[in-house]
Amino acid sequence: MNYKQLLHNSHPNHSLDEIYPMLDQFSWEEEACSFTIILPPLCFEGQFVKGLALVSGISKLSLSINEIQKHFVLLYNSLWSSYPRNSKADGLLTCYLNPLRESWFKQQFPHRQHQLLLPYQDADWTNEKRFYPIKQTTKDIDVLCVSRFLECKNLPIIGQSLHIYHKKYKKKLKFYIPLGDVSPLSTQSLAVFKEFQKTLGKRFDDYVFISKKRYYHHSMPNLYRRSKLYLLGSLLEGKNRALHEAMCCDVPVVTFKAFNQFARGHTDVFPHGAGSYAESFDAQCLADALHNTLSNLTAFSPRNNYLSGFSGRFNTFSQLLAKIPYYNHHLPNLDPKNIMDNHWLNQAIQHCYQTSLTDFILERKTKIPHHTIDRVERTEKVFKYFIAKNIHHLTKSKKHSYSFYSQNHYTRINRKNP
């Protein structure tokens, strides 16, 4: 059985015991060497606290994972809805809270009981202060779809829905794909494009605008702001970063109800009031969902609902630190319900990195490296930067000396009077 059976079929004739291994067949965790720093290592007032990083592909580094774990709690990310395969990471990012799947995983892999299962992915780290709405922006795009020509994106059924929408509701939708400069297309991508194009025939260019302009991260917010809604046609992938970015920009989202259904269990794709579902996986139902959403845009409040505990940087930062036992044991005076106001945490990051906690989380007013995507040399350089800086703070402490005695934490010894 192959996971591709789940890409275009919302009702596969398989049990969950058969489907869960199919979900885990595909992973990008070793394809791209990437990291996101949630919290840097901190040493202040004689107390050491490890940093927190979301990582993938770090087996490509010359640094060993054990060496990095002396300074960071590592959460592995598959960049997909599969459970990460790395057995040495402190925790696994599982995308969604799904007790049935977690129970199945623990039964299948009893030797990995030590690893935390955390229902997050890098998409949850969307920067709500970078992606935000501007009311005066002209909405000249009806439907935005941030997509490459991949089989999992189900672009042909989207094309069919655009044609049905035109016939049923007497309006052509402006459908925009910011493809970026990816020419020449791979053989597989070209096949997907031709199938997509075939669904609309000679009228393809009347419906679909494909931009080959490379949209960098700083220019994407304005593209969302110009859009009336964001559409995702997949049945199976990761959490989809663009879905989160759109909601941050107060753009309603539309997905199939069956999107990541077996990975999610009963967890919602998006918060109530942030968008609409196409109830079944067919073009007619999708066309109706687009119409209902476009006809009632003022009924949605995506940004407010998204930031009310669902996701975003501040929510994710607080939730991760509250759920990871290491920080409950090592972060001084930790109140899981009010982490952002922790006095020691705010003082420590200012002392070590000369920035506020808020500015670090939002990557504002700071040149501290936060993340890389698929760049081995850059990833290694950044980890070495944090390790060197951390060792400097440990060895230069005037009141304490430190020795490393286990993989998990530092201890304070030989305390001297000031």
Characterize the structure shown.
A six-stranded mixed beta sheet has the order 7-6-5-4-1-14, sandwiched between helices. Strands 10-9-8-11-12-13 form a six-stranded parallel beta sheet, sandwiched between helices. Strand 6 (91-93), helix 3 and strand 7 (116-118) form a beta-alpha-beta unit. The chain folds into two domains: 3-124 and 312-413, no CATH class; 141-307, Rossmann fold (3-Layer(aba) Sandwich). The chain contains 16 helices and 16 strands. It is 35% helix and 15% strand. It is globular, with a radius of gyration of 23 Å. Helix 4 (155-169) packs parallel to helix 5 (187-200). The protein is α/β, with parallel strands linked by helices. The longest helix has 20 residues, at 376-395.
List keywords for this structure.
single chain; 16 strands; 2 domains; 6-stranded parallel beta sheet; 6-stranded mixed beta sheet; disordered C terminus; 16 helices; alpha/beta; Rossmann fold; globular; 418 residues
List the helices and strands and how they pair.
Elements: H1 16-23, E1 34-39, E2 42-44, E3 47-49, E4 51-56, H2 65-69, E5 72-76, E6 91-93, H3 99-108, E7 116-118, E8 141-144, H4 155-169, E9 175-178, H5 187-200, H6 204-207, E10 208-211, H7 220-225, E11 227-231, H8 241-248, E12 253-256, H9 261-264, E13 275-278, H10 283-294, H11 302-307, H12 313-323, H13 325-330, H14 343-353, H15 357-361, E14 371-372, H16 376-395, E15 401-404, E16 410-413
Parallel strand pairs: 4-5, 5-6, 6-7, 8-9, 8-11, 9-10, 11-12, 12-13
Antiparallel strand pairs: 1-4, 1-14, 2-3, 15-16
Helix pairs in contact: 4-5, 4-10
